[in-house]
Amino acid sequence: MIVEIGHYALVLALALTLFQATVPLWGAIKRDSALVALGPYAAIAQLLLIGISFAALTHAYLGSDFSVANVYQNSHTLKPLIYKWSGVWGNHEGSMLLWVLILALFGAGVAIFSRNLPDDILGATLAVQAMIAAAFLAFLLFASNPFLRLAPAPFEGRDLNPILQDPGLAIHPPLLYLGYVGYSIVFSFAAGALIVGRIDAAFARMLRPWNLVAWITLTLGIAMGSYWAYYELGWGGYWFWDPVENASLMPWLTGTALLHSAIVMEKREALKIWTILLAIITFSLSLLGTFLVRSGVLTSVHAFAVDPERGLFILIILIAFIGGSFTLFALRARAMESGGLFAPVSREGALVLNNLFLAVASLAVLVGTLYPLALEGVTGQKISVGPPFFNLTVVPLMLPLFVAIPFGQRLAWKRGDLLGVTQRMGLAIGLSFIATLIAAYYIGRGPALAIVAIGLGIFILLASLDEIRERAMRGGTSGALRRLIGLPRTFVATALAHAGVGIMVIGIAFTAFEKEAILSMKPGESVKLGEYTLTLRGIAPYTGPNYTSTVARFSVHDGTREVAELRPAKRVYIGRQMPTSEVGRHRVGFSEVYVAIGETSDGAHVDLRAYWKPFVTLIWLGPALMALAGLLSLTDRRLRVGAPRVAARRPERLEPAE
Amino acid sequence: MTLWIAIVVLTVGAAALALLPLLRPRRSRSSLEHAVQFYESRRQELERQVAAGLISESERAASEAEQARRLLAIGRQQQAAEEQGHDAAFRRKMAALLLLLGLPLLSIPIYLRTGTPNFPDQPIASRVAPNGDAEMAQALQRIELHLASNPNDARGFEVIAPAYMRLGRFQDAAFAYRRVIAISGETAERLADLGEALIAAQNGIVSAEAKEAFLKAVALDPSFAKARFYIALATEQDGDAAGAVQKLQDLSASLPEGPGKMRVEAELDRFRAEGKAPARPQSGPQSEAGRALSALPADERAKAIEGMVESLAARLSTQGGSFEEWQRLIQARVVLNQRDKAATALAEARKALGDAARAELDRLATSLDLKGTP
Prior knowledge:
heterodimer, A: alpha+beta, B: Serine Threonine Protein Phosphatase 5, Tetratricopeptide repeat, elongated
């Protein structure tokens, strides 16, 4: 009965979203605050209903209720409890249920924190959010219902994909979804503002916390997915330009651009049209990502729902929302007056530069991801666009952007002084030059470009952080501490986030210096990896609770003594006969020794790939710091105003153009 | 009943929660009010920045001038738009009506279409049923656990494979048979079992792997009937109906009277009904009807077959019948592509035959991929 209650709650939520999609909007247009006030309560009721539904499905999973087809297909009584639990969203139907749950969570979030929102925007925003929810609830109920029943109920389920039996699965998809779906509320705000025709700094201020939340979670979700691929799939890489990864990277790039352009809009009333456009594009790309992953048009590890009918359904949703919002945008574009003017060399100008590069990079990823699909659709020819394409397009776009980060951060609003900024960065530039030389000395020989990239990373890191010192010291050492404490948290957050970029760049640059060995070894043999020597001690079978595995035992020697023993393994899960790798890793500071084994055909040899990966963990620590900085910025609820720098000579020319 | 109480509570609760603000109105915040407050706090923030020494007095003044201009612009905009409607009460009533009527009128019909009310939860722990199925599930679990730690125990896999087949877990059964073969070697019997599991897993299609298993089995034991039977079916699926009939007839001729021969003959009957094989040469009441049937034009033949099936259905539902008769009816329904009626017939058969034929009916339902009502 609990399952059926969950099913009904989902249907009821659909009916309620239709109400929420119309009545508050009506109120917003008629400026009737009583009607608008119905919106927040409907949003909260919607969250409760979908929550009940999700809880009912979880209950069915935990109790191994195989009369629910979804549980039968994706669970097993022998599965450890945590994977029964994470199995709820480890499949198509369940993950879509999580999708709408998060959608409702954001809607209710706006409802709860709505006290400071004006009636018209609140009503329109909640209505648009409800429209999105209605579309996806309909998709869930009519095209991928997780509550379909089986009679007679089987006595055992079909297990879960063993690759997905990992703690990473418990956290990675929900985080990624929080980010993806988080941009829905950003979109709803933008569409709402377009509907009521109120696009100004106050709107950017309302948008800020939601924009930040979506960005933080998407950043963490992508970083965690990358880390998971690194240690679970056993390929040793951190980013593969897999279409599913690209699908999450595209909204991240435009979302990052949005984060920056919204600052300009909030502080300076400029870039309004562009900000609204970015909000629409970012969510459109999130929807596109959902479509790519869910429709099965892409063949990849992630596309577990290979069903053209579902793909068509999502495609229709996609076209309706993107088309609708762009039409709305076209209708309102003329009503949006442009805000304050600014010189090309200014904080605004730097942020426009940032936006340009991020948007073009996102476009490059989009082309690289969709071009093979389009080509296959038109000519039937199958090609694959791999890392070389992306490395040649996205990387050159990112490099100038990275160089510009510390400069842009220091430029004044309205008109900046590039020379002065460079002078102020003298210390940071000098220090990073010395640090790079030291690093180059220790590395010894290597590709010059990679050393330049390491230098760039160090420069971003030091120059970003140095601004904090610089600001505190401005006007002498006396009172420096007071000024340091008085610094807005958003300012510190900017410096930290940019430092995170620097850390990530250093980590990526160091991959050029990794040592790799791919070979077949017998027990007793050794292989050298940089300063470390890896010796195969033995191969032994091992039997786990629901798998059998072959474990290889390696000792790691650093020249003077044995520092670690690694036990990488190849597992075969009995339920599905699917092999998975368990890699062996030994961490030294930020660096790692990494071993993954392959087949052991004759029992005497083992095929393996071993790496020495210097500073590899920086690749994920950087984004983690970026997300942390976002969190810090989120705690700063102060208003942000960009005071324009007054021109020295002709103040009468300062009029902001209206 | 409890479910319907829950449905009423949910519906009324959701409607009540959403309509709550009509009783306790929200403090209205017009856009202008919001904008004034927003720019006021921006002014305060600028002052704070001046006090903290972050910006200069002249910067503050320039910024404040900008703020003032913005606020004026918004004020003008708002004034033009600010028109309070007089029909607020009407709108409130409409909204309430929309919710109170719309919610149940939409959601209950949709739920009745997509949902399965009165279908109880069946968590595995509660399924300690009197019929021994649960005991079997527990036994199965014990064997699975045992095999997980002793993957080379051929006997265990031999025991568990038929159990998997009975439960419809054909993939697992195929895996178990493969293990048995890998551990204890190939015999005709084991290969044929593996092939059968593979076919069941593919919904009756003889895959290349399955065919290979049967060919190996026949190579080991040329007289092995089961393997020859499936090879004949594979021949049919390869498009060679005549060859398949030939193989089935040879097989039938080599078999003694018994269930095995009946199964082969039933298959040959199917070929005849589909017009892929010549009518049976010997005479007999059954084949006379068959000959008469095959002489009819195609559409009349279909009608005649349907008529026969309907009369069989009518007879069975009024007078009852043996398991074989029910089986014939259900299979005929499936062949005629009347899956709904097949399911109904299955349910009727369950009722009519009771516990005695339960296992056989289960097996039949699984092999035809039918869901019966519980």
